[in-house]
Amino acid sequence: MRLYDKRCEIKFITSLSDDTYHLGIVSPEISESCIPGQFLMVRVNDDYEPLLRRPFSIFRTEPKEGIVEIVFEVVGKGTKILSERRSGEFLDVLGPLGKEFKINSKNLILIGGGIGFPPLFFMADFQKSENRNVVFYYGARTKDGIFFEKELGRICNKLIITTEDGSLGEKGLITDVFIKDLETGIIRGEAEVFSCGPTAMSKEISSICKRYNLKSQVSLESVMACGTGLCQGCVVRVENAQKSEYKLVCKDGPVFDSDIIIWED
Amino acid sequence: MVDLTVKIGDIVFKNPVLTASGTFGYGDEISSLIDVNSLGGIVTKTITFSPREGNPPPRITETTAGMINSIGLANIGVERFVKEKAPIYKSFDTRVIVSVAGETIDDYCRVVEYLEKEISADGYEINISCPNTEKGGIYFGSNREMSRNVTKAVRQLTSKLVIIKLTPNVTSISDIAGAVADAGADCISLVNSFVGMAVDVETRKPKIKKIIGGLTGPCIKPIALAKVYEVCSKVDIPVIGIGGISTGEDALEFLITGACAVEVGTATFFDPKAPVKIIEEIKEYLNSNNIKNVSEIVGSLIQS
Question: Which residues of B are known to be catalytic?
Fold first, then answer.
């Protein structure tokens, strides 16, 4: 797959909540070629502060308009600066990067925790005309952390929202609701699980899937300097066929079969 | 038309801009983004005799105008390097310098011997300055005698270009530079990273697992430049300047100070096209100042 490093116009930037933003960038090349699970490295300004680009999972594309979209939360100085950029301005964008989710089944269970939902939204949207059965679990702390609920409802066969305070959907942790559904037999037949969220959630989903013999892929998050494998900074330990080794989240991932990940505390 | 070529030892580089070791992988990672053949040369990721998986994560953290890394010389080892990576270089129309490290002098020699037998690199950059390994690396580069001995040992094994890469984490870098020059190095490259540290005040944990790592990026440029000045004043062999070079102007500062070439490192992480842009910016500077040959500005610092 070709990689593009271009200066791209900001088509729109809108705030979805106090600290969550939806950004659309004009990049016909990336918009046309990227697939769910892949990410972009975005330079938030032309300065040395912050120095490094920031990685963002792709949320959606509008290939007809040449637009690629991300949804991000302000968590530090890089995302703060990005949230203050305006439409019409330009950003250096590198992508599409990394390995995608690989679909091998007719029944997909997508699990998005908090700001981990974008790559799963992309997946649901990307394959909506494929006649698969898509169940989407979407969890957040409160209803203010749930976005694009209507769109998700349209593109998925079933949307299950969970909030820790019960302000929207089912009350509780997404992992608990998922287990409950597995135990009550709501999920039947062969299904594949795809998840992205906080590490604790991903780890728990991975172990649940192992217990219930479900194949699962997880999109991991890591600090990265380059996004292209040059710096070797973003390693995760995996164990595959008795071989334990480091893999690069940027190049070998960010999507991995979850049963090979060695989760560090 | 300006002449950008520089000669180090017997090797002619088409321009004075190389990629720094550990910041350009093995040379094939981003070849779809930049034309490697437009570069003066590439310095590969450091190769050791046996493969190294590197240090546990987190390995990198951002700092003000810089970053700290503790990769720990993760690499595939010389055997796989020769089999899987070196064949690509045959199609490269640029100079390829292989960066080499070891834990003992014998280790350094084994890698160079293996490479001498198996591939035809243009030269070796002997990394005696990595701050992120338990043994070897910086422990050679911060000791005058050991720096001299490893240089001598490698020199005896090859007639190719031998570049010794120095650490700035020493009391007197010019002292070490003098020792490796006397021991037969063709060239000195400096600086490797400065030891650095960062702490997360919320968790009170170091931001990288190994606590101390190597600081690089624009924040180190003035310190690196002073080290290059110091070494250029002391030794007669060519010097390659490294340290935070991100623009043509940065590179020119090093050239004017006395470096005959530069290596671009961390800049490639945040701007993969940085090395190519730097070449263009040097060219523009020479053109607009009516300078025909880049060598005319090397060491042209006016000190009055």
Answer: 130
**Is B60's CB within 8 Å of A264's CB?**
no
The fold adopted by the segment(s) A4-97 is Elongation Factor Tu (Ef-tu); domain 3 (2.40.30)
Cβ within 8 Å, pair B218-A94: no
Give the pLDDT confidence score for residue A265 in this predicted structure: 64
Q: For the beta carbon of residue A125, count every other beta carbon within 10 angstroms.
A: 18
Domains: count for chain B:
1
User: Average pLDDT for residues B16-20, to the nearest whole number?
Assistant: 98
Place of tokens 């031998």: B162
List pLDDT tens digits, range B113-149: 999 999 989 999 999 988 777 676 677 888 999 999 9
DSSP state string for B32-68: TTS-GGGSSEEEPPPB-SS-B--PPSP-EEEETTEEE
Which CATH number is associated with domain A107-260?
A: 3.40.50.80
Within a domain: residue B67?
Answer: no
List of chain A residues whose C-beta atoms are within 8 Å of the C-beta of residue B64: 49
Determine what percent of chain A is predicted with pLDDT higher than 90: 89
Query: What pLDDT score does A49 carry?
Result: 95
Inter-chain residue contact A246 with B218, CB threshold 8 Å? no
Model pTM?
0.95
- Point out the residue among B58, B67, B272 whose CB comes nearest to the CB of A52: B67
Q: Judge contact between A68 and A94, C-beta under 8 A.
A: no
- Convert the pLDDT of each residue in A89-136 to its tens digit: 999 999 999 999 999 999 999 999 999 999 999 999 999 888 899 999
Dig out the tokens for A130 from the structure: 């494929």
Which one of A49, A199, A232, A238 makes the best mutation probe of the B interface by having the most chain B beta carbons within 10 Å? A232
